[in-house]
Automatic annotation (TrEMBL), chain A:
One of its GO terms (biological process) is transmembrane transport. It comes from the Bacteria. Its main location: membrane. This is Carbohydrate ABC transporter membrane protein 1 (CUT1 family). Belongs to the binding-protein-dependent transport system permease family. SUPFAM superfamilies: MetI-like. Keywords: Cell membrane, Membrane, Transmembrane, Transmembrane helix, Transport. GO terms for cellular component: plasma membrane. It is a multi-pass membrane protein.
Automatic annotation (TrEMBL), chain B:
This is Carbohydrate ABC transporter membrane protein 2 (CUT1 family). The keyword ATP-binding does not apply. Residues 79-287 form the ABC transmembrane type-1 domain. It comes from Cohnella lupini. GO terms for cellular component: plasma membrane. The chain crosses the membrane at residues 21-39, 83-102, 114-134, 146-166, 186-210, 269-289.
Length: 320, 304
């Protein structure tokens, strides 16, 4: 082996040297491109990698006056304290169940809607329906929370009135813990299902019309054509989005939850990220909160890798 | 026989189409109704809104809600701040995103894979809330505009979308011709590439602009002076905090809230008006720009 290596070294080095010179020439020639990339490079270095470096306070007892280096190491104490706490399982359960609920409801609806849009040939109706269903995507999360609160108000909200007209008593959606997850998930569907169709419609527009013509000649019904031509055409998009969604299982839409949270629905609405916010920025337990945040990110990364691996074993649509 | 089978097929298809149209119409109504309801509620007599008598079209028309909103100083301050943060923030976003995306689209950039890899990692792993907060604090940006616009200066997703655009829509010959002419990369980018890239610049300005306009969280954690609050934070006080503290039996802490009339009905009227005023600029321009937004998502969906 060593001899072989020597032989390769002897014959290839000049080639490689030439390659290196070429690389250097290219770098010098394109020096401006490095200037182009510099703002983004420093931005990610400082504002993404900087905080990653700061993660070490999860293993220290961070005291602001002493700085990161002056604070004493504590090992895994903060993690152990979190795992042993009485709220650990509640937080984990709420986070997972909200995410899975959201995935189960929010993932298929844009797909069905996109398939339905795609079957409509009337241009004007289709365009109007698309414009209207896309629009809620642009409503801010604060306004969304405000809308939810006013619509679901038990005394004056329109939803309570509608349920009352049907002859039922409306539950108090905003304060009843049993309703929190449903409220969160379905308001999310209302806001983003329409926008979510775009990516599938793009995939559907790439379907070869010849396939449909051939299927029509073979006597396939519209429904059969959707099932056997259109759905297979969007499977790659579906797979990629599913992997990405799984990768953020513990990263639920924290901004909206934070806004809809109140002391009465806390047992169902407190998730890891809102807890990190409260313990870290409200109660200033910097190290403890960072440890919980790190736990969250690590689980996310593991889920992403595992799901991607599982997908890669069954088909070729994995992320990497 | 062939006739028969065509007939049968079209019969099945009719049922399918009927279902399909009903489904789309249902989705349409479910999305449109809350929007129409809010528009109507914002100009209706709050008593009729609260009792449920007004459920679709405005009843007992009044503009008091809007009048009160227009008189409210903190909403106007918030509007002004949001405009400032959105314009400055979006300018920074474009300045960071476009040149980087162009450089990454060039096959002759050595180290391209290193940069791309370094950026993409941040999509899946981050330092988390507290380390980011401590960093911004350390940099002395707390309670300034910079805490809002700098930590969100670029999104890796948008950089990828732009890079895909540059790779697929700008002919490579242009770059080669410019290099033969001996013009620099800077000149090539500014006077040839950018003018050809107006569609993607529009898409990026819109994506980033909407994001900046709608964001509240960084303002909430980094800003202390109410004078500097963006609109979304003022809205949070009016729409969320006031309501939540009333429900949980706490005290109203928002100065904005007490500045408005505290009678429940008037407060509700103001809420609808505020929702409309805060959302109108974006919803009103969106149908005209829909093409660009959709284009942006589509470019992003091309695996590259």
């Amino acid at each position: 082996m060593r001899e072989a290596g020597g032989v390769i070294k002897g014959t290839v080095l000049p080639e490689r040297e030439k390659g290196r010179n070429k690389t250097w020439r290219r770098i010098v020639l394109n020096w401006e491109l490095y200037l182009f990339i510099a703002p983004a490079f420093f931005y990610f270095l400082i504002f993404s990698y900087g905080p990653m470096y700061g993660i070490q306070i999860a293993f220290r007892n961070f005291v602001p006056t002493k700085g990161i280096y002056g604070s004493p190491w504590t090992g895994f104490d903060h993690f152990i304290r979190f795992f042993d706490s009485y709220y650990f399982w509640d937080l984990l359960w709420n986070t997972f169940s909200i995410s899975l609920y959201e995935l189960a409801v929010g993932f298929p609806i844009p797909i069905i809607l996109a398939l339905a849009f795609n079957e409509i040939k009337d241009g004007y109706f289709k365009r109007t329906a698309q414009t209207i269903t896309y629009a809620p995507h642009f409503i801010s999360v604060v306004v969304m929370a405000g809308m939810i609160i006013t619509f679901l108000s038990p005394s004056s909200g329109i939803v309570a009135h509608l349920i009352g007209w049907l002859g039922f008593d409306a539950p108090d959606f905003l304060t009843d813990p049993r309703w929190f997850k449903t409220m969160y998930v379905f308001s999310g569907v209302w806001q983003s299902a329409g926008w979510g169709t775009i990516i599938y419609l793009a995939a559907l527009s790439g379907v070869d019309p010849g396939q449909h013509e051939a299927a029509i000649i073979d006597g396939a019904s519209r429904f059969q054509r959707v099932r056997h031509i259109n759905i297979p055409a969007i499977v790659p998009t579906m797979t990629i989005l599913l992997i990405l969604n799984m990768g953020s299982l513990l990263g639920v839409g924290f901004e909206k939850i934070l806004l809809l949270q109140n002391s009465l629905n806390m047992e169902a609405s407190d998730v890891i990220s809102t807890f990190v916010y409260r313990s870290g920025l409200v109660d200033a337990q910097y190290s403890f909160s960072t440890a919980i945040g790190l736990f969250n990110s690590v689980i996310n990364a593991i889920v992403l890798v595992v799901v991607n691996q599982a997908v890669r074993r069954t088909n070729e649509n994995s992320l990497w | 026989m062939p006739m028969m089978s065509t007939m049968k097929v079209s019969g099945r298809d009719k049922i399918f189409l009927a279902f399909n149209y009903s489904f789309v119409i249902l989705a349409f109504v479910l999305v449109a109704y809350p929007v129409i309801y809010m528009l109507s509620a914002s100009i209706s007599d709050p008593k009729l809104v609260g009792s449920g008598e007004m459920w679709l079209l405005p009843k007992g028309i009044t503009f008091e809600g809007y009048e009160r909103v227009f008189q409210n100083k903190s909403i106007w301050t918030g509007y002004g701040n949001t405009l400032l943060y959105t314009v400055v923030g979006t300018a920074i976003n474009l300045f960071v995103t476009l040149p980087a995306a162009y450089a990454l689209s060039r096959k002759d950039l050595s180290g391209r894979h290193f940069f791309m890899g370094m950026f993409i990692v941040t999509m899946f792993f981050g330092g988390g809330l507290v380390p980011s907060y401590l960093l911004v604090k350390e940099l002395g940006m707390v309670n300034t505009m910079w805490a809002i616009v700098i930590p969100s200066a670029a999104s890796i997703w948008n950089i990828i979308v732009c890079r895909t655009f540059f790779q697929t829509s700008i002919p490579k010959e242009l770059q080669e011709a410019a290099q033969i002419d001996g013009s620099s990369n800077l000149r090539l980018f500014v006077s040839i590439i950018l003018p050809l890239s107006m569609p993607i610049i529009a898409v990026m300005a819109l994506f980033y602009g909407v994001g900046n306009w709608n964001s509240y969280f960084s303002a909430m954690i980094y800003l202390n002076d109410a004078e500097k609050y963006p609109l979304q934070l003022v809205l949070r006080q009016i729409l969320v905090l006031q309501e939540m503290s009333a429900m949980a039996g706490g005290t109203i802490d928002a100065s904005t809230a007490s500045a408005l009339n505290n009678k429940a009905e008037i407060a509700a009227l103001v809420k609808y008006a505020v929702i409309i005023i805060a959302t109108a600029p974006i919803i009103a321009i969106y149908p005209f720009l829909q093409r660009y937004f959709v284009q942006g998502v589509m470019i992003g969906s091309v695996k590259g």
